[in-house]
Every structure is written in structure tokens, then in C-alpha cells.
Amino acid sequence: MFGLDPFLLSLIGTVLLATFFPCHGDAVPVFRWLAIVVIAMMFFLQGARLSRKAVVDGLTAWRLHLMILCSTFVLFPLLGLALHAVMPGLLQNEVWLGVLFLCCLPSTVQSSIAFTSIGGGNVPAAVCAATASNVFGIFITPFLVGLVLARHGAQSGSVMDIVFQLLLPFVLGQILQPWIGDWAHRNKKLLSMTDRGSILIVVYTAFSDAVMQGLWHRLPVSQLGLIAVVDFLLLVCVLVITAFGSRLSGMPLRDEIAVVFCGSKKTLASGVPMANVLFPAASVGLIVLPLMIYHQIQLFVCAVLARKFAAMTKAKEAEQGAQSSPMVEG
Question: Domains of the chain by range and CATH?
Fold first, then answer.
């Protein structure tokens, strides 16, 4: 949990490959079309793997899920806009676009559930909440990106690109889920590798474009440190607000843990393909940098936090056990 995520290492390797051996010339349109195809396939398989029951169950514990969705799709964008308003010159324009894009993304699934489990939280609720976030994110994120970027003076991809590359494949996967869902679940590990391979192709294509446009000449090394600072501030603000918000609303500790971990995560797996659809090819490399850095920061910080929550959960269970034990009269 404390080391570098293996997938992040793969991403770093892909960025280095694109830096020293970017695709150019006749290879560029080939890789761009390949990226479009793998993105569509990825969202199709997401739809195929997601059971109807998981979608329905994700709507039952409405108060918990509403808080997580508000954190993911309301609190994050507001914080991103606030940070940009306070210090607009801290980051380059396209990097700020990347921070704002990060704020519009849905939550992760695997790490949200894993950290909730480690912390002793409400795992079934985390499963449903993370699933619901990803489903709604396919529809909400493009809409939010359009709103946020309109305030920022930028434009996102066309509605038809979003429909054909993201929504249509996902809906088609959902339609075919009764027939191919079992196969998708049986081959979850293989499909996970396919998903990650798809993301690496998109990252290589995006960074090749960015390198050919002079990415590393335009981005000083100091900007990477500043991106990490902004990402860390975002994460800490959300962690504090979700924790205190859960307590003020009277949620039990198990639900609070689910809210904190599901409400503070941002998905790299869906974020990179979405960026490829929503932004010009030459900008994608810079725009996904804040997301890649946030991905590692959230893993490290939440690993520490999960252990603290685990200790709190054990202490609370011990206290409840002592209170429920019969008093022995002398």
C-alpha cells in the first residue's frame, strides 16, 4: 500500500517511451484510431460486467450514496474552481484544466472498496456507492466538464464523440450483460489486464502528441511539484469535509468510513479514456498529469488513514462489547 502502484509504474514507463520514442508520421492516425477502438471496448466491457442488481442496490441506502455522490460531483468541482480562483497563476492553463477535469471524474471501485474493508467500514455500501459513482459518472462527468470548462474559457469534446465512444458502448454492454455477464466475471483478471493495456495505449498516444508539441519544453519540473501540492490540498479538504459531514449527519462509524474513502477517490482507469474523448489530442498529455499524480497520492494517504480507521473500529467494537457484557454483582 505504501509503495508505488504497479500500474502507475507502467504508466510512467509508457510516458518515458512516448518521450523518447513518440509515434509520428503515418503511425499517428493508426494510434489515434486504435485509442478510439480500445476506449469503446473498455466501456462496453464495463457495461457487460456490471450486473443490474448492483445498479439497483446502489440506489437503496440513499443518504450514504447521496453524500458520496455530492462529494464526488459537487464538492470536488467547487473546490477545484475555488483553488483556481485563489491562485490562477500557480499552474499552467492546460494543467489547471487537468485539475478541473480530475475534479469532475467519478470515484474508483477497487481501491474504494479495499480501503473501506481495511478500515472496518461498510463494505456492501462501498461496493454499491463506487459502482453507482462509475455508472453516473459516464453521464455526469462530460456534462460537468462542459460546465466547468465553460467557466474556465475552454471547450470539451462534441456531444456525439461522447455518445459514440462512451455511452453507446456502455449501454450496449448492459443490454448484452445477461448473455455475456457470466463470461466477463469468470475472466475478470484477463479483462482487467485488457483494460489496463487499453489505458496504456491511450496514454502513449496522448503523450506522443504532447511530446511532438514540445510538452517537456513547456512544462518545467517545478510544475510537477506544484501539481502534487494542489492535488494534496484537494484530497485533504475532501477527506476533512466528508469525515466531519458524516459525523454531523449522525452516521455510524462504518458508514463514515465508506463515505470518506468512496467520496475522496478519483478514477484513473476511466479518467484517461474520458480525457482522450473530451479534449484535443495535443492537450491530453498535460491534462491527465494531475490525475496520474493524484492517483498515487490518494493511495498513499488513504493507506495511512485506513489503518487509523481500523484502530478506531476495533476500539469502538471493544467499547460496545464491554457495555453489552452483563455486570457481575459482588
Answer: 6-312 (1.20.1530.20)
